[in-house]
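Ops channel
N.P.: pipeline sanity check, posting one input/output pair.
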């Protein structure tokens, strides 16, 4: 018999046996399309738009179904009810971090995003406490964001109303806020270290959202043994780690245990307190991982949202005009907007929420995992099974948001024009793994955007109706197409 045929038969028998054991053994996974040997359901998933594929499959298999990305089963939760039940109502059981091979390769399962169990709980608790002590969500951090907003405006003035790509400038602002918390100091927008950091962070978010990385995550052997853009990500992360370790070394030589200056100092002090604990989670490797996570999550998510937001505001100038009218009426032209103004600016608040809802920044969320055997809607999901939660299905829910594919701030306004909250707004995820920096991101988006619109008119280079707002990548993140505009001083 042909050896290839024998191999195919063996693989098929193995796969069928594996499926049988999952259905009749320890676990009873939800239904789903029949996977093929080795490649699983890869042919049934559009890697350029996984979220759309999940939506189509949910019509056939319901809100809870199983897919195979390669040979590993993944339980998909589609729709608000299923996502809420898992992440909020049963948050502890669904609080694990699912396998994300590219993330594990870069961070070795340390830090905030890719760690699990006791490590994750201790590191998250410490990070939240430290960030709050340094003012996250408070007036003191608002002062830092305000200062950066002024620097951002001045940098935009230097463009002298000429066409420019805003990617770099909009990235520098949130990056500097993170730097001020981690390193105590910000960078000048022309600083070479900042230029290098932003270049590598921008490259990573684009590559990590590409179809190739989705393939690498399904078949991890590719990461170690094949050429490809994933190696660029690994090199960029190595650069960031080297930069971070140098900053940590500088802090080790100057830290004052009685007067911590920033996040790194606080962590080093905690390390000293636990130096006799051999099981301590507080190590230099862990600190480097946390800083890498804060940089990636704290810079790219906010800057991408701002960049996409400006594109939408150019596409819909009538929306921009209403925001600017509200800024003029509430704030005026002679002082900068503050967070206190937000309560008096329902339309602007609605626009910010609608930008985040519409762009659907992280369509399928980062993968979760169940921390124990879980009985969920008559299924038995074994401990460690990867859970994929479709945030698209929540943010674009037709019942909650009529015409969800349309950009419309009235999704967040009541009949009286007041801001209307929605439980379906899960732009920062939900539950135990909700974004650590949510309050900071909300503050940055409000202050950066209102400062820009107070000081400038946004002028596109083409007719607004011809502006393309379709994301160029829609994997890990929804990345807007590149564009240029003119910032015309008001």
């Amino acid at each position: 018999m042909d050896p290839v045929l024998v191999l195919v038969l063996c693989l098929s028998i193995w796969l069928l046996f594996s499926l049988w054991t999952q259905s009749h053994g320890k676990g009873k996974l939800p239904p789903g399309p029949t996977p093929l040997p080795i490649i699983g359901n890869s042919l049934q998933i559009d890697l350029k738009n996984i979220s759309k594929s999940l939506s189509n499959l949910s019509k056939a298999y319901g809100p809870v179904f199983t897919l195979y990305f390669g040979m590993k089963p993944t339980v998909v939760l589609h729709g608000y009810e299923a996502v809420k039940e898992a992440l909020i109502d049963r948050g502890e059981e669904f609080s694990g971090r699912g396998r994300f091979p590219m993330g594990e390769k870069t961070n070795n399962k340390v830090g905030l995003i890719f760690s699990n169990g006791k490590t994750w709980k201790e590191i998250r608790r410490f990070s939240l406490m430290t960030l709050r002590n340094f003012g996250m969500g408070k007036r003191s951090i608002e002062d830092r964001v305000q200062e950066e907003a002024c620097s951002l405006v001045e940098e935009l003035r230097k463009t002298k109303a000429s066409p420019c790509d805003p990617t770099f400038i909009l990235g520098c602002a949130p990056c500097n806020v993170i730097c001020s918390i981690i390193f105590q100091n910000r960078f000048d927008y022309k600083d070479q270290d900042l230029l290098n950091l932003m270049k590598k962070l921008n490259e990573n978010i684009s590559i990590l959202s590409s179809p190739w990385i989705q393939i690498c995550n399904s078949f991890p052997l590719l990461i170690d043994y094949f050429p490809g853009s994933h190696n660029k990500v690994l090199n960029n992360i190595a650069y960031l780690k080297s930069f971070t370790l140098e900053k940590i070394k500088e802090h080790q030589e100057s830290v004052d245990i009685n007067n911590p200056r920033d996040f790194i100092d606080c962590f080093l002090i905690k390390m000293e307190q636990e130096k006799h604990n051999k099981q301590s989670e507080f190590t230099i490797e862990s600190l480097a991982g946390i800083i890498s996570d804060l940089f990636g999550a704290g810079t790219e998510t906010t800057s991408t949202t701002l960049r996409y937001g400006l594109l939408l505001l150019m596409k819909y100038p009538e929306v921009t005009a209403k925001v600017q009218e509200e800024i003029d009426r509430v704030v005026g032209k002679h002082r900068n907007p503050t967070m206190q103004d937000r309560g008096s600016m329902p339309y602007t608040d609605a626009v910010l929420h609608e930008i985040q809802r519409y762009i659907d920044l992280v369509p399928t969320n980062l993968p979760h995992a169940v921390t124990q055997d879980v009985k969920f809607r008559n299924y038995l999901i074994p401990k460690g099974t990867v859970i994929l939660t479709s945030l698209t299905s929540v943010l674009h829910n037709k019942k909650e948001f009529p015409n969800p594919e349309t950009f419309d701030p009235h999704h967040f306004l009541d009949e009286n024009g007041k801001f209307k909250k929605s439980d379906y707004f899960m732009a920062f995820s939900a539950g135990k793994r909700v974004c650590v920096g949510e309050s900071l991101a909300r503050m940055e988006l409000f202050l950066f955007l209102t400062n820009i619109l107070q000081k400038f008119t946004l002028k596109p280079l083409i007719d607004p109706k011809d502006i393309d707002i379709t994301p160029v990548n829609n994997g890990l993140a929804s990345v807007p197409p590149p564009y240029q505009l003119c910032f015309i001083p008001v």
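N.P.: looks fine end to end. Confidence is low (pLDDT under 50) at residues 19-25.
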